[in-house]
Specification:
By secondary structure, this protein is mostly beta strands. β25 and β26 form a beta hairpin. It has 2 helices and 38 strands. The protein has a 4-stranded antiparallel β-sheet with strand order 7-8-9-10, with no helix packed on it. It is globular.
Length: 439
Amino acid sequence: MRISQHPWDNPLSIELVDNRFLFSYLERRDAGGLRRHPGHRLPSLSDLETNTTRIIMNARIVLCAILGFSLFVGSPQFCSSQDSDNTRMLSQGAVSNSHIAFVYDGDLWIANRDGSNPHRLTSHEGDEASPRFSPDGKTIAFSAQYDGNTDVYIMPVSGGSPTRLTYHPDPDFVEGFTPDGSRVLFSSTRDVFTRRYRKLFTVSVEGGFPTALPIPNGLRASYSSDGKKIAYIPIAERFGQWKNYRGGTCSRIWIYDVNDHSVQQIRQPEGRCNDTDPVFIGDKVYFRSDRNGEFNLFAFDATTEAIEQLTDYDDFPINRITESSDAIIYEQAGYLHLFTPATGKSEQIKIGVSTDMTEIRPRYVSDSRWIRDVGVSPSGKRAVVEYRGEIVTVPAKKGDVRNLTNSAAVHERSPAWSPDGKQIAYFSDLGGEYKLHIA
């Protein structure tokens, strides 16, 4: 038997009642509403504890010993479909007066501002994220998973060895630079009593101990050009888990005055919305918001408090905006775009990147870390396992491992055995959308 999360619902609420599991869940509706489903009963603890524990333990042993020699992952067709003229899936863009930086294939890349001459800056197996240019455009700050932790690093735009600036065991996320370029602004869960919040810090580009900003908690922060104001969101976004979220923790933008410590909030409509990624250019704060449907780019005039919508996408949201002195870069539908406030126009940046794509190269794999959902057959003789996007059954003691799907470039998940033990239901994104399948 299996207890798992519905692929498009919120996490299960599970209670133990009379030695049996009683669970309910919240189902998201298209309009963003929630519906609570009644309780459902699952097998008792006494039913589960003996067979399930034994079979899952044996499944891991069998998978480690056998599955690695029989499971072939990757798709030659998918590997060859990379567009080296206008590459998609570029993310987390940053822009200076002469360059753009972005993340692709888990590494940090840089190109000319028009997208020409792209080349890789980093090649470490750890992921790099959140690149930001210094005000003079000569240095890039970014967060990287080097040495077993996520910390702040800087490196020259021309390339070279990254210099580590933070050493705390909690993750540190780069937000930008101070206006004079002498310090890197970052957010971190250090010095907070719960990881629900982050605080803002700065650290010198020469190294040393970070300094906390006099703001209780915040992230997605940006300095004004004169350093007198900081725009930020006080709590982390919820819409990453709940699209069209309109609850009490909707993300909102506060503008902090460094001199008198006052705060101005960008107003929201009566039904709430999610505002995030504020950046200053001149006297205006640019941000992305879902107040009118999909996430688009907006501008807020701090003097008049007027809000203007600048883009009108309705298919895919705008993601992660950053700025230079005269432009804003954002990702939309897998491509990077440049918005120029002076003209009020956006333009897609055509960037051609070609890499070896090692993570999708066809190869054999063997590692119990890739075991996801596990279900036990009614007889207790076999278990069904979600393993790296394949649905596989394994014996409790003796027998063969059977790959039921054997599908490259397709993700199968959430297997469940039928009561009579003759069929297995699972979800598959074959064809582009998740659908229920039975094997």
